[in-house]
Amino acid sequence: MRRTFAALVSLSLFVSSVAAADPPHIVLKNEDLKFTLYEADATRGFYRGTRFDHAGVFGHVEFAGHKIFGPWKGSHDPTNHDDIVGPCDEFGIEKALGYDDAKVGGTFLKIGVGVLEKPIEAQYSFANKYKIVKPLEWKRSEPVVDGLLMHKWVGEQKANGYGYRFTKTLFVSDKKGTVITLEYALENTGEKRITTDFYNHNFFNVDGDAVGPYYSFAFPWEPKAKELKGKFADLVELKNKEFHFRAKIPNSDFVMAGLTGFDPQAKADRQFDMRHEPSGVSVAVGHSYPFAKFNVWGIVTTICPEPYMAIDLKPGEDTKWSITYTFTQEKK
């Protein structure tokens, strides 16, 4: 039977005492759940790349004696585009705001990161290291809400007619069990229309276990794969609303595909479950937004389901959405 761990009680928050060289972070802890949040710091932050937003960057999550979302790369360079772990957000994977209009040496805007300089290159790439001309300045607060432990980040920036106000709130509740909730709000404060997308990369792994048959995903819809890349066709099986591996991903290979089969208008379709058989750990991930597309990418050290949301905001318009992570363990 599946058992949801006890509600979050006796919550405590403490700022870790770290050496000067360590990235600044905080640790959230209760009886059953413990996880790290790295500060958005332009000079000392754990993640300072130009792809993912810098607020509320996770370290691993400890639950039921297991570690979820652990490191997946052998070394760490905080300025690399993907030297990050856990749930992390990106806006505009294919193109940042104002990139096409910017001349070489000019600037464009990456939501959640800052004002970036356009180099000599054929096209925008999320994997490139762009010069940050002006990092986004974040204001973090800890709103006092009865029954909740909450952290809130707000960042505002304008450049070349584009402007936005981005708010990201993380909280855990003592009333809903082992649930981490992320709430988002994006307002267009500029003169130009914002047309982009958003997704969470979800760098899943459990206890450093290699990605293979021990991992699976369950959906409320029947997934079908398109645009298969790497070893996806050889290693992945989709049936009975589940995603399974036939074998471990080889060290030098990867899997990638788009998944279809969901109904964007059906609220029940906006979720998936990650399951790890040896630990019995499951993470149910729920979304308030309709999926525009759904990609999966993985290597031997991490498997990443990526549900996308389309964003189209005229000046003055805003939008809000949320993602929840519910941790459970099957009793053996």
TrEMBL record:
Name of the featured protein: Aldose 1-epimerase
Keyword Magnesium annotated: no
Signal peptide bounds: 1-21
GO molecular function: carbohydrate binding; catalytic activity
Domain of life of the source: Bacteria
InterPro entries: Gal_mutarotase_sf_dom, GH-type_carb-bd
Lineage: Bacteria, Pseudomonadati, Planctomycetota, Planctomycetia, Gemmatales
GO BP of this protein: carbohydrate metabolic process
Keywords from the UniProt entry: Signal
Organism: Gemmata massiliana
Keyword Nucleotidyltransferase: no
